[in-house]
Each structure stands twice: as C-alpha cells, then as structure tokens.
Amino acid sequence: MLGRTLTLHERALTYTVVGVAPPGLEYPSGAEFWVPLRPFAQLEAVPLGRLAAGATPAQAAAELRASFQRDASVTWRDLRAVATPLRDVVIGNVGPALRLLTAAAALLLLIGCFNVANLLLARASGRMHEIAVRRALGARQGRIVRQLLTESGLLALAGGLLGTVFAGVMVNGLVALAPPELPRLEEIRLASLPLQWAAGISVAAALMFGLVPALLASASVASAIRPGDRSATESMPRRRLQDALIVLQIGLAIVVLATAGLLGRSLLHLQRVDMGFTAERVAIVELAWPDAKYDSPDKVRGFYERLLPRLEVLPGVVSVAPTHLMPFEGATGGIDGRFVADGTATMDAATAQMLSMEIVGTGYFGTLGIPLLRGRAFTDADREHTSRVIVVSEAVTRVMWPGGEPLGRRLAMGQPQGPEDWWTVIGVVPDTRYREMREPTPTVYLSTSQFISQFVSVRRIAIRTAGEPAAVLPLVRHAVQEMDPDTFVASAHTMEGLLGRELAQPRLSTALLGVFGVGALVLAGVGLYAMLAYFVRRRTRELAIRHALGATPFRLRVLVMHQALTLAGTGVLFGVAALLAGGQLLESLLFEAGPADPTTLAAVASIVVTVALAASYCPARRAMRADPAVVLRQE
Prior knowledge:
Layout: E1 5-8, E2 13-16, H1 57-70, H2 74-77, H3 86-91, H4 94-126, H5 128-136, H6 141-177, H7 192-218, H8 236-272, E3 282-288, H9 297-312, E4 317-323, E5 335-341, E6 353-360, H10 364-368, E7 374-375, E8 389-393, H11 394-400, E9 410-413, E10 422-429, E11 443-447, E12 460-465, H12 469-483, E13 488-494, H13 495-538, H14 540-548, H15 553-581, H16 598-624, H17 628-634
C-alpha cells in the first residue's frame, strides 16, 4: 500500500500513500483517507488542538476570543470561538441517550440487588433456629458470616454467568434489530472490558448486599431457641429493613418506567411534529464534480442550467431545485450569519442577530412543499445584477421586526458599508425544521442566482416525484452521467429515509429503556410477591388466631392486600419524588414533554399498583385458608 497513488476525482489531484491509519480511526465520521489541507484552504475548516496540561476547553475558547478582539481586522473581531471536547464531537447527540441507558442499567442492577438482599434476609430469618443452635454449640460469628457470604457469593457468581450469556444474546439481537441508520452500529459488541466490569460488580454486589443479612442472622439469637419463640413475631428492625428494600425496588422501577414513558411520548410528538415542509415523495441527491472543471460561479450556473431541464423531464419527476444544505445537518452544517435590520439605531456585530442561511434555487419552496405566507418566491428574473432579494421565515420576522410588516424591509450581513450590502425581503414562509428536527431555525433564504460567492458549494438537488422517489433515482444518476461523465451522484436519500434516520436513535433508546422498565417492574413484582409470601408464612399462627377470633377470610385477604398497597403506594411516592428531583437530567432528551407529565406518571403508577395487587393475590389466598385447628395443633 505504501507508495501507491490515489487520484481525488473532484479536484483531479493525485496523492501518494505515505501511511496507514490504525483500525477504527474514522474521524471525521466515515473518513477513509486524509489529505493535506492546503489545496482545500478555501473550505471551512474546523481546527483541532491538544490542550496543555490542566487547561480546559472553556479556557481555550476564552483565549481565542481574546485574540480575536485584539486583531485589527473587523472580520476576526466578529468571530466567536467555541471549544468542544473531541469525545463529545465523536459521540454527538447519542451521548445523553447513552448516559441515560447506563443509568437505567444501574437502577436495574440496584433493584436486583435489593431483591436478592431481601430474599437473603428472609432466608436467614428462616434459619435463625439453626444458626442459634450453632452459636450455642460454640460456632463463632465470623465463621457463620463467612458461610453466609460464601452462599451469597455463589448466587452472585451464578447470576453473573447467566447474565453474561444473556448479555451476549441481547447484544447480538440488538445489532440484528437496530435500524441500519444508527451511527457506529458496527462497533457494538460484547468486549472484554464490560465483562470485567460485570464480574467486578457481581462480586461487589455479593459483598455489599449479602453482608447485612449475614450480620443480622449471625447476631445474638438466643431467643430463637427458647421454647415457644420460633413462631414469635420477628424483630421490628428486620421487618422495617425488608419493607424499605421493597419500597426502594418499587420506587426505582417507577423511575425507569416513567422515564421510558416520557421518552415514548417525546418520540410520539417527534413523529407527529409539523416539519414545515412535505417529506413525502421528495429525494435529495448530492453531486460530486472536479473542482478544476467548475471553479467559478458562472461555470456552476451553466452546469445547473443544462442539468435541471434534463431532470425535470424525467418520468416521475414533478420539480427540482438546487440547494446547498442537506436536511438535519444541525449546528455543524450550513452557514450562519450575523444580520442587522434597516432602521436599527446601532448596526454593528454587538446588535446583530445570528440567523441561519440557506442558498436555494428557483422552485425550491414548491419542491419542498413549503407554502408561501406573504409576498413571492424567487423567480428566474432574480439575477446577479438585479435588486438583491431574500425570503425569510416567520421566526426572522419576529426577531428582526416584532409586530411589523417584513415585506420591503431590508437586512444586511455584518456591518453594511453601502447599498449593495442590503437585501430586500420579498416573501415570508413558515418556520421549518429542515436543519434541526427538534427546533425550527430562524432562516434567511438567498437565491443561488444572486449569492454568487457561495454558488460553488451548491451541490445538492431537491427532487419532488409523482411516485416513489427511489424509483426515480437511477434515472437521475444516468441523466447526470450522460450530461457530464466527470460528474456523478455521490449520495442519494429520500426525505422520509432521512427522517427515519433522525428518529432511529430516539426509537432505539425508547425501546431499550422500555425493556429495562419491564425488567424493573418484573423484579419489583417478584420481590413484592416473595415478601408477601414470607409475610404470610411467618404470620400463619397470627392469621389463624385472628380467624379463630372471628375474622372472615375476606378480612384476612384485605390484610395482605393492604400490606401490598401500602408498600406499593410508598414506593410510588418515592419514585415520583426521585423522578421530579432528577427531571432536569432528562430535559435534553424530551420533546414537548416534561418530567412532571401527569398522564405518564398516572399511567405508570396505575401499572405498578396493578402489579402489586397481582403479586398479593396468591399470598392473600393462602392467608384465607389458614385453618386455626391445624395451626394450633402444630404448635
């Protein structure tokens, strides 16, 4: 490979391979090779830097801003600097979702640990007589604690091994079922580091949650071998600890379930949100051509004047329009500019508004299905030497002319020096979510025929079709190649496919958190059932005496169900309070929904109460069948 040559088609440049990058290095995302920056100096570059020891990104950004202010050039003084850790750039918007899923997994682990600790407490209570006899025969407390910890360790080991097998199956299933649009999907695998973490967590859980039951069981239990004390009421501290563990399980299950519900509502709102444009039957194609061949705006304009008529007459094509921006490129895509409005008292960078800019061709609004609210759209009469005109979104009118009429008003980018720097508003369109799905962007639309300096970067074409866009794309590829063999379609997407890619990560996060929520609910329900069954078994004598004294079977059932509802209700209150306390951590992931959403909280609380009643059914039936004669005869 070293010494071989590669030719970059777009610029007709030949490069010699001087090195091979290690596997997995794909920065920027999807990069397959790297070339020197010098031939691309006119492009917008993002500088990378390594911070000095002890320095923070905020300090680096502050130093850059200070250096800009010291520069004599107006261009530099108007720039702003933002320093972002490379890790955050690589992870992108998946970072908050990953942290949320990690937190949900930790809560699920805690629920399981609380469950096992409660079962160990119940098991130790059942062995109180055995342990008391061993203590009376000379066994030291430390030896008994070691035995009980060994038993809990074996449980943790078995659970860890089973969990490893289950994790392998789940990871393979996740990769198979995850949407292909999910970024970095090919990197998801069960690596050795997570397995080591899992093993360490299993050991730590065995020690932490097995120690308290072991200490309680091995403490002074002389009363356990006294006659008549084996059926006596168990100690109040142990009962309270067991109840607290159940409440914690239910509360944590509420947190996970409610979070999954909130993400589900956010996803539903995202799927129903008005994008401001029509995504159905629209495709976006990106072209690649040799820069040396189309190195001026006039050449690019001539290229489009020849290509667009060819595309418009293709079977199934309704309309076409060039644009420089791919949908949903976010803050890192497109062009932003600082604009001032005519009539502003002070027209400088300090009072200018940062607005998004889109460079579009004639017919763009019709192709995207963006309605014109006022004025007119761009026409073929808007040329380089005619009056400079723009179309603005509603958000721009609210920012620049609150309550005023925008048509005929003017905007200038930066600090205007003369009449040629002003652009007249000829039309108003609705706010769109073309650049960012979660929030409409105040946008200034400029014509490709007039914003000449940036025409060379307009390499995308929006295409509206009469039928399925995917059926038209091969015809588009052929038409491009037929007109200019040096130009080709580098990428082609349907707008609905791009929307699906934007929703892929929220869908997967919601589904995974839903699985965690169901798992948490099952664990909490099983823990509550085991606790109630233990409650009935330990209090069989008391229940029989109540029955003998006139308590009806229905009253005995109510007693058990009351215990279940008390624990469930307390857990619900704890879980809701915890969710509200940490709700601000979810806000970046939610859309048109808040942590205090009453519908979601009510639904989750109802589910948990229903599960609690179901868990109490069998123990309550057993309590109803407590026969006083049989129980007292056994005593």
